[in-house]
Amino acid sequence: MADGGLIEVNGTVLRYRRLGEGRTHLVLLHEMGGALESWDAVVPLLRENCRILSHDLRGFGQSEKIRGAIGFSDLTLDTAALIEKIWPGEKVWLAGCAVGGAVALDLAASRADLVAGVVAFAPATGVSETRREGVLERVAALEHDGLRAFFPQLEERQFPTRFRDDPTRVEQFRLRRLACDPHSYAAVWRAMASSDLEQRLDRIDAPVTIVAGSEDSGRPADQLRLLARQIRHCRFEVIDSGHAMPVISPLAVARIIRASISQNPV
To answer: Which segments constitute the Serine aminopeptidase S33 domain (predicted)?
Structure first.
């Protein structure tokens, strides 16, 4: 039976959902512009063997919106506080996509006592110096004009055309993006652009799986393969998918999460 709602942790209000049964405690972290519903096609494939906790990251979905600047660590601290509130004393697996994958890696680097392992799908660990100025200019325009003006280019980059065989899933993806608060979206992008997460990856001692999508132009496989080499106990895998892998390729995503957990049980 599922339960959840709104909860205040780390000075912010988060919407969360908890369901499933089994020995493993699994936390799911969505992509930029997503919400806990981004995992809806994956959860039924895992819930019989995992206790699952998912939430809307700060600024997204029904969680409290952001005004002003935040640090990337705020998202990590939110997640740690939620886990400790919902599952006190438990060590958890983390599975995250894009910015959610980066939160998972950051939490593993900073809280070895809390994290049993990580599966990161196209983790958004930062913005290179050569891209930073252009990215921040686009973020400022997005904040001013809203998500609707930018959605066509976002959709093609995150959800390539050849994977849009399920009209309902595609439409829900579109609606979640259009409903995003542009100020929160921009604030998280700026936090990510100023993050030094890659400098902390060598602190991770938990087992990690990094997954790339073969059609992900934003986080290409070659880039993620290099990232994986910076992590001590890391597997790397490429699947036939785009950027928003839990939405596009739920069967493959669930398979990789199950395999990662079974190879490294708590």
So the answer is: 24-240
Whether 95 contacts 259, CB under 8 Å:
no
Contact 45, 15 (CB under 8 A): no
CA separation for the pair 163, 41 (Å, rounded): 15
What CA–CA distance (Å, rounded) separates 244 from 66?
A: 23
Residue 209's pLDDT band, with cuts at 50, 70 and 90, is very high
The pLDDT score that the predictor gives to residue 24 is 95
Query: 30-83, pLDDT tens digit by residue?
Result: 999 999 999 999 999 999 999 999 999 999 999 999 999 999 999 999 999 999
Domains and CATH numbers, the chain: 3-263 (3.40.50.1820)
Whether 243 and 157 have beta carbons less than 8 Å apart is answered as yes
Token pair of 147 as six digits: 């998500």
Q: Are 26 and 46 within 8 A, CB to CB? A: yes
Supply φ then ψ for residue 98, to 5 degrees: 55, -115
Report the half-sphere exposure of 168 (CA within 13 A, side-chain side): 3
**pLDDT tier for residue 198 given thresholds of 50, 70 and 90:** confident
CB-based contact 20:1 (threshold 8 Å): no
What's the rounded Cα separation, in Å, for the pair 58 and 62? 9
* Residue owning tokens 């392992």: 117
pTM attached to this predicted model: 0.95
